[in-house]
Amino acid sequence: MINDLVTDNRMHKVAESLRKLGFEPELVGRLLPESQPVSREYKIHRMKLLFRKGALFYAEYNLKLFFYLLKSKSEIFVSNDLDTLPANYLASKLKRKPLVYDSHEYFTEVPELIGRPVVKATWTWIERLLVPKVNSAYTVCESIAEVYRDLYKVEFKVVRNLPVCSNSEIQETTDKNDKQPKIILYQGALNMGRGIEAAIRAMQFVDGAELWLAGDGDITRELQKMVSELKLDGKVQFLGRLPLLKLAGITRKADLGISLEEDLGLNYRFALPNKLFDYIQAEVPVLVSNLPEMRRIVEQYQIGLVAETHQRKELAEIMKTALFDQEKRLVWKQNLPKAAKELCWENEERVLYQIYTRYI
């Protein structure tokens, strides 16, 4: 994995599920100067790199990963996303070991590649070359799986990034008095295309509420500048990156969880973010973009609202409805326990077992 493994909850869950099957998983990531310590029940290796972004970074990472995998005694190589596939593929071929591909997103359609035709063409070429050669593959939603099946004639299974229900402890919350502001929560990476700017602008027209941003990312400083310029310092809080357990406590305090991804290419159009399921597991009503995968979840379980627009005043009105319409909130609160029970990693990992038991 390209990240430092601190907040990669999906891979932690996969590793724990593989341990149940009798495997001894090892996660490989990178070590940043600001990386927090990580202690897990399985092996972790984090590599120091000279470069932090760009072509040289990806080349250095894959080169170091390749040599590390050559020395490893692993019986199966698992590539998490396209940016680790070159090293995993070469190592698996040389060592004659099976290669499993876990695609966390539609990589060649991420917003970061918009307007960068050469970079996008390079990753698309790597994808076309290597994906058809993997032994097993799975991804995060049915829409992306269908695209990959059509493109590469590879059977992609779907393993959604759902929370572990057995780890969740829904605590009873006391009703807030009218003087306490409602909490609108965004948790996850502060990157472009997540609808965070729209949420901040909308807060100009939402009284009696605060927007909490739990995470960090490429546009954190831009967002902080926007908040300052709009004089919203008292209504928008930046919580930074939080450990998983602390983040779960913050999620339970929220009155509304937002996932307002923009339709910037197919990757975001098919988005099914893990934060949506974290909100649901904490039994927090949700507000999502009008994108097919998220809309399907919200409408199936009747647990929140779908925003048809990101225009600031219209979005503010939707937020106020989601926060203060007690009739709607009562329905959502009644439906959330069922959604939380069904949308569990314990149910999803059955698909994972089907994929990996063939290699035992």
Description:
The protein has 360 residues and is α/β, with parallel strands linked by helices. The protein folds into two domains: 9-162 and 345-359, Glycogen Phosphorylase B (Rossmann fold); 165-342, 3-Layer(aba) Sandwich (Rossmann fold), CATH 3.40.50. Helix content is 44%, strand content 15%. 36% of the residues are buried. The model has no long low-confidence stretch (mean pLDDT 92).
Question: What's this, in brief?
Answer:
The protein is of the alpha/beta class and 360 residues long. The protein is 44% helix and 15% strand.
What's the structural blueprint in terms of helices and strands?
Layout: H1 9-20, E1 26-31, E2 43-48, H2 54-71, E3 77-80, H3 85-95, E4 99-103, H4 117-130, E5 136-139, H5 142-152, E6 156-158, E7 182-187, H6 196-202, E8 209-214, H7 220-229, E9 236-238, H8 244-253, E10 256-259, H9 266-269, H10 274-281, E11 286-289, H11 292-301, E12 304-307, H12 312-324, H13 326-342, H14 345-356
Parallel strand pairs: 1-2, 3-4, 4-5, 5-6, 7-8, 7-10, 8-9, 10-11, 11-12
